[in-house]
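Entry type: protein chain
Record version: 2
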Amino acid sequence: MIDVQTVIDRITTLARRRGASINQVLRESHLNKSVLDNMKRGSMPSADKLAALADYFDCSVDFLLGRIDTPSLFPAEEKPAAAVPALTGEEIARLRQLIGR
């Protein structure tokens, strides 16, 4: 069973790691402060509100709900950008030449 306190704890922890206040998180996620107030009263936020928070923290809704313990959407070795090797200076110069910069 999903516990709303787990969601509150995870949001609080992620906000602290970012150096952001809960009010800042809610504001930048385009959510009203009532979302957290309702959660503190035991009401689970709607899927779209959880998705907005997950997008803000770059984590999955499953993590916020406590269904998984890894906040990252991709393990470090599976991140798409990690699969692309860094360009050398020569490759960057060639790319700039190709795009006309």
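Comment: The first helix runs from residue 4 to 18.
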